Amino acid sequence: MTSNPLIGTWRLISWETRSVDGQKISYPLGKDAVGYIMYNEDGYMFVAIIRPNRVRFAAGDLLGREHRGESASRWPYVSYCGRYEFRGGTAILTWISAYFLIGSVVSRNV
Asked: Regarding beta strands 105-108 and 34-39, do their DSSP bridges make them parallel or antiparallel, or are they unpaired?
């Protein structure tokens, strides 16, 4: 069995997206996004990334929908989890049966 160097908890250094030609770079949650990704021995993973200077909830209502004038779908947060496979000989990482949350959009991909 190949050793899996991904096992553990990793802190986000940066998150950027690049165009196919590499000319355009964007930062979906800003250059200062923070987050963690975890991989365990049982084949499960979890990631959470957030914009640290996000708009705060009005009146401290964490479970309500009021978000200082912004719709819930614009909350600057990304999270996903599910099973993964690591094939060390070919350095392939595959996510399987993932759940994800982007803002208030929740999806289940089974």
From this structure: unpaired
Write the pLDDT tens digit of every residue in 41-73: 998 999 999 988 776 666 666 566 555 545 444
**Angle 29-31-32 (CA atoms, 0-180°, nearest 5)?**
85
| Residues 18, 84: Cα–Cα separation, whole Å | 24
Structural domain tally of the chain? 1
Distance from C-alpha of 82 to C-alpha of 90, rounded to nearest angstrom? 21
- pTM value is 0.70
Q: Is residue 14 part of a domain?
A: yes
Whether 10 and 38 have beta carbons less than 8 Å apart is answered as: yes
Question: Is position 85 within any domain?
Answer: yes
Q: How crowded is the C-beta side of 88, counted as CA atoms within 13 Å?
A: 7
Provide the token pair at 6.
């991904």
The parent domain of residue 49 ranges over 8-108
Distance CA 107, CA 87 (A): 26
> Domain for residue 1, yes or no?
no
